Amino acid sequence: MMKSRKSLIVIQLNDSHAYFDLHQEIFWQGGKAVYRPAGGYARIAALIKQIRAVNPERVLFCDCGDTIQGTYPAQSSHGQAMVPVLNSLGLDAMTAHWEFAYGPDAFKQRAAELIYPMLAINVYDQATNERIFPAYSLKEIGGLRIGIVGIASNIVGKTMPPSFSEGLEFTLGREDLPPIINDLRIKEKVDLIVLISHLGFPQDMKLLSEVRGVDVCLSGHTHNRLYKPALQGKTLVIQSGCHGSFLGRLDLEIDGGRIVDYRHQLIEVEAKINPDPEVDDLVRQAIAPYQEELSTVVGETATALNRGATLETTMDNFLLQALLESTGAQLAFSNGWRYGAPIIPGTVTLNDLYNIIPMNPQISTVELMGEEIVAMLEENLERTFARDPYDQMGGYVKRSLGLNAYIKIENPPGQRVQQVFVGDEPLQPGRYYPTTFVTEQGVADKYGRNRQHHTERSIEALRAYLAGYRPLRAELRSTFVAV
User: CB 3.0 to 4.6 Å from 173: which of 93, 122, 153, 227, for a disulfide?
Assistant: First the structure.
């Protein structure tokens, strides 16, 4: 190796959603889904320590966010249960998305408790127009001066509950990034710029086509498992699944401020990895106050429940079946969340239910007209499949039950829904349909009449449904069919 060359190992964690310990994960094998245990921060810590032991002073470890929300211990503690665990991992920096779920004040408190920087070039205080987190940080690793830049999710103030973004302004980062790159290159004299982003893979690829100067982009939000890096111009882009089931590893060779060679691995955090004892102890301490309650068996399922598909999933069909049973409505809708570890056939615990919907929102009902339902579906399909990645608002297609929609994904906005049926009858304009949904991120307020918020919450409905159906069946029903 030439003496001028320097090597660096970049490790990525993204969208781990507070999955403290081993959990089921979905894998595709031929024409079917298979499940096996994966993940857990103690196993992640063991992998990182192994890599660092072989490559001392040459490892950069970054987290792309969606980290301190997604499980009951994290939700109940507003992310505080995660802090000791995260501080033990040796992370160098992170950015954010669902971290805002606890409100800006609580999130800023959590960020202050971390021993590494929270970075976001695109989140501003509305009153002062100042960034609430640093735009970048600097690291000296292996003789390299590295600039790490963070871009938080920009949809927090657009599609999520107002409490998440109160007093804050979110930008895409398109105008914010070039001056930061310029400062890092000219003033800070960095050898390498690493962007940790929670915009999502399609948005990152478009952004990097418009803004030059980033060497490596660690992409999050959309839960892609990239088995090889994408190349946008001269920028290497990786994304590494979700739930802490994977780490992404990039081995870089750098000469004169340029990446001249690289290797990539998508590393499965396998169950057979021996957990790091210190971090394993911290995990046990974090979940101990909740363990007895969460281990309660609340039912059984004959269907493998997962959230691993864009149009329809068994996990969300279970949720929607419970909503229909609880309210007696004709139709049910919920948000197209991506997170939620699979539940394999067998017993179902209370922990499984909270993994499905950790916020435990209220259940609501409303009467929607046929044309309102079509308008709502068209709006959601555009947010999911917009041709311009900047118009994609995150998540999968809105989860629905009680209807069958035949869609043309490739059509222009407002023209994707071909036909909708309720049972065997075409959806009728002017007719009202009793509809149920979960209140948080539910049906937009601009639709419907006779809106009511029920006292029953989502977890209660799921438990009641499981009690009446042993075992649970929640198969796919062709709710959305791309024709």
Answer: 122
- pLDDT for 121-180, tens place per residue? 999 999 999 999 999 999 999 999 999 999 999 999 998 999 999 999 999 999 999 999
Q: Closest Cα partner for 9 from 268, 189, 265, 270?
A: 265
Q: Which residues contact 179 (CB under 8 A, 6 or more apart)?
A: none
Tokens of 447: 């639709």
The pairing of strands 216-219 and 235-238 is parallel
Among candidate residues 188, 184, 183, 132, the one with its CA nearest the CA of residue 157: 132
pLDDT in tens, 388-398: 999 999 889 99
**What per-residue confidence (pLDDT) applies to 392?**
95
Radius of gyration of the chain (CA): 23
Give whole-number Cα distances, 57 to 7, 140, 144, 430, 453, in Å: 10, 9, 10, 67, 55
- 336 touches 397 (CB < 8 A): yes
Q: Which residue has the tokens 């857990």?
A: 40
Residue 1, pLDDT score: 42
The helix (H) or strand (E) run that includes residue 107 is helix 104-113
Bridge partners of 404? Answer: 421
Beta-carbon contacts of 450 under 8 Å, excluding residues fewer than 6 positions away, are 365, 366, 367
Q: Indicate the class that CATH gives domain 295-482.
A: alpha beta
- Spatial contact of 279 and 53, defined as CB atoms under 8 Å apart: no
Read off the tokens for 148: 């790490």
Digit-coded pLDDT (tens) for 332-368: 999 999 999 999 999 999 999 999 999 999 999 999 9
* Residue in this structure with the two tokens 């609580």, named with its chain if needed: 106
Which numeric CATH code is attached to 6-286?
3.60.21.10
Confidence of residue 443 (pLDDT cuts 50, 70, 90): low
Q: Is 170 helix (H, G, I), strand (E, B) or coil?
A: strand
Q: How is residue 150 written in tokens?
A: 């963070």
The answer to whether 461 touches 436, Cβ cutoff 8 Å, is no
Which stretches of 193-330 are DSSP H helices? 201-210, 277-294, 314-327
Fold match between domain 6-286 and domain 295-482:
no
The pTM score is 0.96
Query: Which two tokens mark 178?
Result: 């070039």
Strands (E), 198-354: 216-219, 230-232, 235-238, 246-255, 258-268, 297-301, 331-334, 346-349
Domain ranges in the chain are 6-286, 295-482
Residue type, 33: A
